Amino acid sequence: MQAVILAGGAGTRLRPLTLSTPKPMIDINGRPFLSYIVDVLKRYGITELVFCIGYLSEKFKEYFGDGSKFGVNIKYTFEKEFFGTAGAIKLAEEHLKNDFFVLNGDTYLDVDYKKVYDAFKKANTLGLMVVYDNAENIAEENIAIDDKGIIISYGKKETLKKGDKLVKVKVPKGIKFKYIDSGVYVFKREIVNMIKDNEFVSLEGDIYPDLIRKKQLMSYATSNRYYDLGTPERLELIRTVLK
């Protein structure tokens, strides 16, 4: 199995830590955060990796190289300018297999990736999103699904950065959200046909709404909590969790 890891952001909310270190490479108990993601993927047989990098890209290559010393194979794509979460996937098109995982490089989720992939194959949709059932009430829910598990609404309330502008994703009214986007997805390669070349395209604002309209975004619900590096407080929590 293959995973694309989105790791090109500048991590502005974690400055000054990220002035000289990209967010996914922040030290967690003696090694980069991203190495923990690699470990959990490898445990479930995902050893073909594509790192989509941009900001301080040399830091990734210096540590991971081609991945051989970690028991994986790593290819790299480089964003000269920020093209968004979907735009980064488009840049990796030449490396993509027929099916591939996508993970946020600043989010850790220990879930059975083999079961996730099996659910994706069974659903036969263009995409699948792993959603957290918010068992620990860690954030506001932003995913609604129907009785078949198909995602019917994505209600991300955070703004997306598009160059120097902030873009809001429209949140539908009257929808009951019960789950949270956990930052782990599976896609068929056909997804890249929905992404324009050399333009800012986000999964959240552009691709998911289209997939939802077509009923092509399945969910995989888990009670396993995800952890992200979004704030200094969350960073300290991760250091405790990953001891």
The SSE order reads EEEHEHEHEEHEEEEEEHEEH
Beta-strand content bin: 25-35%
Structural class assignment: alpha/beta
What's the CATH H-level superfamily name? Spore Coat Polysaccharide Biosynthesis Protein SpsA, Chain A
Amount of helix: 10-25%
CATH topology description: Spore Coat Polysaccharide Biosynthesis Protein SpsA, Chain A
What are the low-pLDDT stretches, counting only 5+ consecutive residues below 50? none
How many helices?
A: 6
Q: Sheet with the most strands?
A: 7 strands, mixed
Distance between the termini: 27 Å
Number of domains: 1
Assigned CATH architecture:
Alpha-Beta Complex
Overall number of strands? 15
Dominant shape:
globular
Instruction: Summarize model confidence as the mean pLDDT.
Output: 90
Task: Walk me through the structure.
With 243 residues, the chain is an alpha/beta fold. The protein has one domain (2-132, 181-197, 218-241): Spore Coat Polysaccharide Biosynthesis Protein SpsA, Chain A (Alpha-Beta Complex). It is built from six helices and 15 strands. The strands form five sheets. Strands 5-4-1-6-13-8-14 form a seven-stranded mixed beta sheet, sandwiched between helices. Helix 2 (58-64) links the parallel strand 4 and strand 5 (73-78). Helix 3 crosses helix 5. The two termini are 27 Å apart. The model has no long low-confidence stretch (mean pLDDT 90).
